[in-house]
Design goal:
The protein is α/β, with parallel strands linked by helices. 34% of the residues lie in helices and 24% in strands.
Length: 197
């Protein structure tokens, strides 16, 4: 917790939260993942590894899990937790390069991408680049899941994706909205605010 707060105060625009995510948020973030079928899962902004621990424990041993973390201190923490774990590939890098990271590992697309990045506070040009690369990275079949503390960027996200489901997770500090999305189709779909966790 202390480490998380220190990183937040040093870079609030890129950390975006004052506390690590709760296990309830982790459960909602990973709810759409079919772990039996997923060959490639990607995570942006893993932080202290709350979501990472869930995915690493549940994925198939032969599945590839690409974890991208730009913050150096968080990356070092993640290495201590997950280095050498089968199928977990830790990258100290930028989510804007996700397509390159996938190609380097022999994948055209990821089956699932989960993101802890704070699109509300990130500079818009960075968000645009990440989201456009994410469109290419998930292709027509993949699912992109992110959480946000407000819905200020909901319309912005809908420029890139169709929101399949939206859930409010109350048991988190602060409460968060989880959005499960797929590549935007011409017909479009309405997001549904289903249930609370």
């Amino acid at each position: 917790m202390f480490q998380f707060l220190r990183e937040y105060f040093s870079a609030p625009d890129t950390i975006g939260a004052i506390a690590p995510s709760s296990r309830y948020l982790a459960a909602s973030m990973t709810a759409f993942i079919d772990f039996d079928k997923a060959d490639c899962i990607v995570e942006y902004g893993a932080g202290t590894g709350v979501f990472t621990r869930v995915v690493a424990a549940r994925k198939r041993p032969d599945a590839t899990y690409i974890v991208i973390e730009q913050n150096e201190r968080f990356y070092e923490m993640l290495k201590k937790q997950f280095h050498g774990m089968p199928g977990v590939e830790l990258i100290h890098g930028d989510a804007r390069n996700v397509c390159g990271f996938l190609r380097e590992r022999g994948f055209c697309h990821a089956d699932y991408i989960i993101s802890g990045l704070p699109f509300t506070s990130l500079p818009q040009q960075i968000s645009r680049k990440i989201l456009s690369q994410t469109q290419k990275a998930i292709g027509m079949e993949g699912v992109f899941t992110t959480f946000q503390y407000t819905l200020l960027r909901k319309t912005f996200l809908e420029n890139y994706f169709d929101i399949q489901k939206m859930v409010k997770v109350w048991r988190n500090l602060p409460p968060a909205y989880v959005l499960h999305m797929k590549l935007k189709c011409r017909r479009g779909k309405q997001a549904s605010a289903d249930g609370a966790v």
